[in-house]
Each structure stands twice: as structure tokens, then as C-alpha cells.
Amino acid sequence: MIDQSVAIFGPLDRVVGPYAGYVVLAFAVLTFLTRKLQHDHVVEQAASADDVEQASRHPVHSVALGGFVVTSFYYLTLHHHSGIVMATLAVGVFLTDFFEIEARSVEIREGHDLERPKAAMVAGVIALLYASYITLFVFVKDYWNMVV
């Protein structure tokens, strides 16, 4: 439940606040899915032209990643403890995606085979698992309490 005494965004907190965890989860899934689109875009760039010096970012993945970071920061204003963990993971995903595209640019310039964005996929999976935990744990809470 959201403490309305610390509602920073007023009406937005009342309308979107109860579903903010699900929005973060949706963006985590979307970011994870669009990473494949980003990688295919870079592979296509590398194969289509020999004079490409730098890989460009796919706009859909950039929007999804930006939305993930922004919604995780919004979630931070609602739930401080889990929000700081989620925001840290989202920034980690952003940073790994940034450095993965730079690594692909180096591979293109030097003529190496393109690798998959392994670090970004691992960071995305960890963020996706935590977003799933903070939103979907309520469905298994009773069973978990029986075990623990």
C-alpha cells in the first residue's frame, strides 16, 4: 500500500501508484525482448556496409530502456527500499547496454565477429527476476509462508 502522506506526484500516485510495480515489470520484459531487436539491428549494420565505423542504437530499444529507467525511478518514490534496488538494477542494465553497443562498435571497426550482448542479457535477467519478485510474490506468498 502506498503511504499517501509521502505522495510526491499527487493524483498520479493515486491512479498509477498501485500498478507501478507491474509497469516496471512490463518495461523490464519489453527491454529484454527489444534487446534481440537491437542485436539484430547491429548485425544487419555490420553486414550491410563495410565502411560502418560505429553501431547505432535501435530507437525501439532506446525508448524501452529509457522507460524502464524512468519507471523504476518513479517506483523508487513510492516504495523506497525495493525501489532503490530496482532503480540500481535498471541503471545497471542501462550502463551494460551502453557499453555493449560500444563493444559491438569496436568489433565492427576491427572486423571481428559480433558477439551477443552477454553482460546486458545477464543484467536484464537479474532486473527481470527482481521486478518479478516485487510484483508477483503476492501470488505465491501463502505457499511460501507454509514452507518457511
UniProtKB/TrEMBL annotation:
Top-level taxon of origin: Archaea
Domain DUF7313 span(s) in chain numbering: 5-148
One Pfam family hit: DUF7313
Protein's UniProt keywords contain Signal: no
Alphabetical list of InterPro entries matching this protein: DUF7313 (IPR055737)
Keywords: Membrane, Transmembrane, Transmembrane helix
Protein name: DUF7313 domain-containing protein
Transmembrane annotation, as ranges: 19-37, 82-99, 119-140
Lineage summary: Archaea, Methanobacteriati, Methanobacteriota, Stenosarchaea group, Halobacteria
Originating species: Halospeciosus flavus
